[in-house]
What we know:
The protein is an all-alpha fold. The protein is built from 19 helices and two strands. It is globular, with a radius of gyration of 20 Å.
Amino acid sequence: METIIGILCGVILPAFLIIVGIIFLIRLRFFFILKPFSVGKQIISSRSGFSSLAIALAGTLGIGNIVGVASAIYMGGYGSIFWMWISAFFAMGLKYAEVYLGMKYRRKSKDGCYYGGAPYYIYEGVKEKHSENFAFVFGAIFAVFCVLNSFTTGNLVQINAVSSLLPIPKIIFGIVFSACGFFIVKRGIKRISKVSSVLIPVLSIFYIFLCIVILMKNVSSIPDAFFNIFKSAFSFRSFAFGSMGYTIMEAIRYGTSRGILSNEAGCGTSPSAHASSSNEDPHAQACLGIFEVFFDTLVLCTLTALVIIVSSPKSSLSPLSLILDAFDNGLGSLGRYGVIISSILFAFATLLTQYFYGIESLNFITKSKRWKHIFLIFFFIITIVGSTIPMSLMWYISDFFLAIMTIINLIFLIYLRKKVAI
C-alpha cells in the first residue's frame, strides 16, 4: 500500500496538478499574478463572502498547517516545503476555477439559502451533454469520496494528531472533542459559520504572533533556512550518491500531499463553503478562494516551516515532537503550550467544516433524514475511535482518499474549463 500511495502522491498527483494548473493559468490569462491588486480589491470589497470564507478557511487552516508541515519536513526533508510552494502556485488557479464553478452552479433552497459544491457542478456540467442519470453517477462518485474524506482527512487525521497533546487519556480527549463538535453541528450551518468567523481570525493572529516572535529571535538564521529549503528540493549531493531521484520524489510526495491537505485546492471540498455565500458573484468569490490558498500555504505553512528549521533539534522522533520541540526551543513553555492550544482549536474548526462538507455531499446523494442522522452519529463515533489509532496509518488513509478525490475533481475541472471566466 505504501508503494502505491508513494507513486500516486509522488508522481501521478503532482504531475496532474501541474498540468491542470498550467491549463487554468493560461485560461485565466495569469490575471492573479499579473494583476494581484485586482484580486486584493475584490477581497477588500467583499462583505457577504466573509462568512463562507471563514468556513472555508476553517477547513483549510487545520492541523495541516502545523503537524502537516512538520510531517512533510520529517518524512520528505526541508525540500518538501519548496514543493508545497510550487503546488500552491498552481493550486491558486485551480481554487479559482472550482470556487467559480461552485458559485455558477449552486442552488437555492426553499428557505432562501444557497448550497452547492463539486458534486453539483460535476452533475450540471455533465448533464448539459448527457442524460441526468449519467451525470448523477459522476456527481455521486465524487460525493462518496468527499464523505469518505470527511471521515479521514477531516476527522481521523485531525483528532489523531492532537489527541496526545494534553496529559489526559486519549479516549477521554476524544469523547470531549466529539461531544463539543456534536453540540455545535447539531445547530446547523449558521452555528458552524458563527464559530468559524470568530475562531479562525483570532487563532490565525495568535499563531502568526507566536511564529513571528520566534523568527525575530532567530532572524539571522532565516536566510540559511530558505537556503536549506531550496538546496534540499534538488539535492545534488544525493545525486552523487545515486539517490537523488528517491530524495526528490519523497520531497515532492510529502510537499504536494501535505500542501493539498493544508490548502485543499483542487480537491473540490471548499466550493461547498463558498457556494453558501449570499450574494457574491462567481469572480469575486473565486478571488477569495485565491486568497485562501495564499494565506494558508504561502503564509501560515511557510511560517511553521521556518520556525521548525531555525529552532528545532535534529533528534525529534516524530512529526508531533518535531513541532513541539521547535516551539519549545523558540519560546519555552509559552511556545509549547501556545502551539498545543492552536493545534487543538485549528483541528476543531476543521472538524466542524469537514462535517459540513460531508453532509453537503451526502445531501447530493440522498435527501433521506435517516442517512443524515446515521452520518452524524458515525462521524462523531469515528472522532472518538480516531483518538486512539496509530498516526502513521491515518496519514496513509488520508493521502489515498485525498489523492483520488483530487484527481476526480481535476478531471471535471478540465471538462468544464470553458465555463470558467474572469
